[in-house]
Amino acid sequence: MSVIKITAANFAEEVLQSEKTVLIDFWASWCGPCRMLSPVVDEIAEEHSEIKVGKINVDDESELAQKFGIMSIPTLAVFKDGKCVDMQVGVRPKQSILDMLR
C-alpha cells in the first residue's frame, strides 16, 4: 500500500476512523533527518498492507502539527482506534518503528 498524504481535510477519515493501525510521519521538505527517514517509512508502507501509513507535512498542515504538539521533526505517531497510542521523535531504525506498531 502506498503512503497517503494526510491533510486537515482527510485526517478524520484516514486516521481517526481507520480500522487499521495508522503510522503517521510528521515531516518537512527542508528537514535532513526527515529525508533520511522517508525511505524507511515508504518501505514499511509497501511491506505491511495491514498498516495504513500517512505523511503530514508540518509546513502545509501547521494546525495538525500544533494539535499533536509536534515540536521536533521527524516525529512518528501511531494511531489505533482513533487514538494516538505512541509518539517517537527522531530518525529510528526500521525495526524500532515496527516495534512501535505492535
Task: Describe the overall structure.
With about 100 residues, this protein is an alpha/beta fold. The chain is built from four helices and five strands, in the order E-H-E-H-E-H-E-E-H. It has a five-stranded mixed β-sheet. Helix 2 links the parallel strand 2 (about 20-25) and strand 3 (about 50-55). The longest helix is centred in the middle third of the chain and has 16 residues, at about 30-45. The protein starts with a strand and ends with a helix.
Helix-strand layout with pairing:
Blueprint: E1 4-5, H1 11-16, E2 21-27, H2 32-47, E3 51-57, H3 62-67, E4 75-80, E5 83-89, H4 94-100
Parallel strand pairs: 1-3, 2-3
Antiparallel strand pairs: 2-4, 4-5
Oligomer designation: single chain
First CA to last CA: what distance? 18 Å
Tell me the Rg in angstroms.
Answer: 12 Å
Helical proportion?
25-40%
By DSSP (H or I, 4+ residues per run), the number of helices equals: 4
Helix-strand pattern: EHEHEHEEH
Question: Low-confidence segments, ≥5 residues, pLDDT <50?
Answer: none
